[in-house]
Structure formats: C-alpha cells, structure tokens
Design brief:
Layout lengths: L2 H13 L1 H13 L8 H27 L26 H17 L2 H40 L19
Helix pairs in contact: 1-3, 2-4, 2-5, 3-4, 4-5
C-alpha cells in the first residue's frame, strides 16, 4: 500500500467529490433550504449514506490495490476490476450520483434534482469520451474484456468472475 496514493486520494476526495456533493449543493440551497417531511428525510438519507460509503470504499481500493488515485492526472498503476468493480464499471460515479439524488430528496429540492441530473450527464460524457478511450489505450484487451462483461452504470446481479492473476 502506498501512503502517498492514500494521501493524494484523500486530497482529491475532499476537493472534487467533496465540492460536488457538499459545497455546490450547499451554495445551490442557500440559507433558506426547504425542509421536507421527516419520512422524506429518512428516505433521502439512504442513498446519501450508501453513495458515500460506495465512493469511499472504491477510493480506498484505488489507492491500496491500484496504487493510484481517482484523479485522471494520477491514475492507478493496474486496472482495478475487483471489489465493487466486479458489479459495475463506475461505482465511484454511481456513489456520487446516489449522494446527490439523496440530497435532492433530503431537502425536497428541485434545484438539487436538476443539478444531480446535470452532474450525471457530465459523468456520462466524461466516461464515454475521455475515460473509456484512455483506459482502452492503457490496458487494451483486458479492459475491452472487462467492458464486455461488466455494465457501465447498472450493476450486475452477480459479481464478474475473479479476474486473471496480475489484475487488481
């Protein structure tokens, strides 16, 4: 495990997902955030907590197994296709999107729902036009095989069989 990768992953998490899920929604809500019924708060907390745990587990996996960060400027050294990545190719993005949708419910905010939708569209465009081509160039046939077996956004019901040795 690289302590440097863990530290840089923590910094990236605070700056990027932290801004996307906390700072920007806070600015969008302002001081007069709507307060929905208590049952809506409970329902909204579920995707917030599950999404945050998903992101954090995957970020830890990137730093420890992949020896890199979620940041495109310092990617993992190996293709990470284990853990939650055996169910869905982009669990970190799915986790962040779950947090945003949970916040929209939590605060009963149409503004946050629109923001979550725009972030989701941004994720789709980034993944399709930058991330997947970059990973295909970097990891070739093993990444293409992974893409054929594991869906981009909707998780498989069963995990993809354990990857060949030498892959994360």
């Amino acid at each position: 495990m690289s302590s440097r990768a863990v530290g840089r992953t923590l910094l990236f998490t605070i700056l990027v997902p932290g801004s996307v899920t906390l700072l920007i929604p806070g600015l969008l809500l302002g001081r007069n955030a709507p307060r929905p019924a208590a049952w809506v708060n409970c329902v909204g907390m579920v995707p917030c907590v599950l999404g945050a745990l998903t992101y954090l587990a995957c970020a830890w996996w990137f730093a420890t197994v992949g020896e890199g960060t979620p940041a495109p400027i310092e990617p993992t050294k190996t293709l990470v296709v284990s853990g939650l990545y055996r169910f869905v190719r982009n669990p970190m993005y799915v986790g962040v999107e779950a947090v945003l949708l949970g916040e929209a419910l939590l605060f009963g905010s149409a503004r946050l729902l629109v923001y979550a939708t725009l972030v989701g569209v941004g994720f789709e465009l980034f993944v399709r036009f930058y991330e997947e081509p970059a990973l295909t160039r970097r990891f070739g046939a093993s990444y293409r095989e992974y893409c054929r077996a594991v869906p981009r956004w909707i998780p498989r019901l069963s995990p993809w069989p354990r990857p060949r040795s030498g892959e994360g």
